[in-house]
Amino acid sequence: MFVTWIMNNFMDYVNNEHEDEWGWTLAARISTLAYLIFVGFGILFFVTCRLFLTVESFLSLRSLPEGSFETVPWSNYWPHF
């Protein structure tokens, strides 16, 4: 729905249907473009951080301390399958 609104505004701009409201439409286009750039950078930042944390968590499994492979004593008393 949002993309349809953007495309309709773009087509109005191309067809020059709002020549009398030129100042308003220009301000609306600039603010819409600024919003889309801001959201785009936010999504890019989120995806980059998510990928970094995922890769880093798997890379940290390569250098586990020796104590992480020892069996804890309470697991001998707790039933498990």
Give me the secondary-structure topology.
Elements lengths: L1 H14 L6 H38 L22
Provide keyphrases for this structure:
81 residues; mainly alpha
Describe this structure in words.
The protein is mainly alpha-helical. Helix content is 64%, strand content 0%. It is built from two helices and no strands. The chain has helices at 2-15, 22-59. It is rod-shaped, with a radius of gyration of 27 Å. The two termini are 52 Å apart. The mean pLDDT is 79.
What structural class is derived from the secondary structure elements?
A: mainly alpha
How much helicity do the residues have? Answer: 55-70%
- The percent range for strand residues is under 5%
Low-confidence sequence ranges: none
Distance between the termini: 52 Å
Mean pLDDT: 79
What is the gyration radius calculated from CA atoms?
Answer: 27 Å
| Tally of individual helices | 2
**Silhouette:** rod-shaped
Overall strand count: 0
From N to C, what is the helix and strand string?
HH
Oligomer: single chain
- Biggest beta sheet summary: none
